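Hi F.,

I've been meaning to write this up properly since the lab meeting, where we talked about keeping a consistent format for the predictions we share between groups. The idea is simple: the sequence comes first, exactly as it goes in, then the structure tokens exactly as they come out, then a line or two of notes. No screenshots and no reformatting. I'm using this chain as the first example so we have something concrete to point to.
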Amino acid sequence: MGTGTITQVIGPTVDVEFPPDGLPELYNALEIKDESRGIDLIVEVAQHLGNSTARCISMGSTDGLRRGMPVNDLGGPITVPVGEDCLGRIFNVIG
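Output, unedited:
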């Protein structure tokens, strides 16, 4: 699990640069957190751009994001528990 930095934000699309040996897998969840600005956002890796940049799709508003903000790889995809209690229900998969 590596740490990268935001290089570009266009609408719900966020580009994140990582060290070449730290590029997260496709569909991994990444966390962008800035407590001073009230930002706690999950993005999902949708595409690799070269050897060090991940193009991600945001699961929430990108308002307040800026270049240079740190991004943490959570080490796996967004997951939700499943079972009888979930059948026929609509729920927020990120909390």
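Notes:
The mean pLDDT is 91.
The CA atoms of residues 32 and 41 lie 5 Å apart.

If this format works for you, I'll send the rest the same way.

G.
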